[in-house]
Amino acid sequence: DGGITQSPKYLFRKEGQNVTLSCEQNLNHDAMYWYRQDPGQGLRLIYYSQIVNDFQKGDIAEGYSVSREKKESFPLTVTSAQKNPTAFYLCASSPQGLGTEAFFGQGTRLTVV
Amino acid sequence: DQQVKQNSPSLSVQEGRISILNCDYTNSMFDYFLWYKKYPAEGPTFLISISSIKDKNEDGRFTVFLNKSAKHLSLHIVPSQPGDSAVYFCAASASNDYKLSFGAGTTVTVRA
Questions:
Q1: Is B84 helix (H, G, I), strand (E, B) or coil?
Q2: Contacts of A31 in chain B (CB under 8 A)
Q3: Which of B86, B100, B91 is nearest to B35 (CA)?
Q4: Pairwise CB contact (< 8 Å): A43 & B34
Q5: Are A54 and A71 within 8 A, CB to CB?
Q6: Using an 8 Å Cβ cutoff, are A93 and A50 in contact?
């Protein structure tokens, strides 16, 4: 079945460590996104990519990095520079063009202790 | 600065009655609007959308209304069912920028 897979679902890391969240899609979508959800703040855009080998900062990119070497994959690295990394992270993809909705993965809950 | 605002964090409605969720936006370049539904610890799922050339779109129990002059949209769910209990996010995008901007969400609780 087509869809977006995020792994792992739950992730624990020690403070000061970098951690990479996986996102894979087999929908043949051009665009991919990373969002962060915190209580009472909705979904905030971290990074997005419209095509392979190109990506743009979103509203809260500081302390994060991404790569888009393949159309199917858009991994997110949470670096030690991110001051408050504990959150629920959501990856999404969409075909290009107006009138298309984004499809979301099941999310990764990252807890930094 | 949040460009999409959902000012009601929660809504409680009796089963069978209408649920009305509101959303306001500030960016006049937005021309496509979506509603997503989200259960805890899951990703949001697409519910319904509307483009700026329309003022109403209906899909079964869900209807979205758009008032461009007021920069306001609303989602009507009728009749409300227990399975509708979830967080609902309003989102918007502009045709020259494919990223989606989301509101903070409204938690809907449908009472039996």
A1: helix
A2: 98
A3: B91
A4: no
A5: no
A6: no
CB contact under 8 A, A109 and B41: yes
pLDDT in tens, A2-60: 699 999 999 999 998 999 999 999 999 999 999 999 877 789 999 999 899 999 999 99
Inter-residue contact A34 to A25 (CB < 8 Å): no
| Number of residues written out for chain A | 113
Helices assigned H by DSSP within chain A: none
For the record, the structure tokens of A62 come out as 């500081």
Q: Is beta strand B30-38 parallel, antiparallel or unpaired with respect to B45-51?
A: antiparallel
Residue A92: closest C-alpha in chain B: B43
Find the CB nearest B103 among A35, A42, A58: A42
B105/B50 Cα distance (integer angstroms): 18
For B66-88, how does the pLDDT look when each residue is reduced to its tens digit (9 = 90+)? 999 999 999 999 999 999 999 99
Per-residue pLDDT reduced to its tens digit, A55-72: 999 999 999 999 999 999
- Comparing alpha-carbon positions, the chain B residue that sits nearest to A32 is B99
Interface of A with B (CB under 8 A): 4, 6, 31, 33, 35, 40-45, 48, 50, 56, 58, 88, 90, 92, 94, 96-99, 101-107, 109
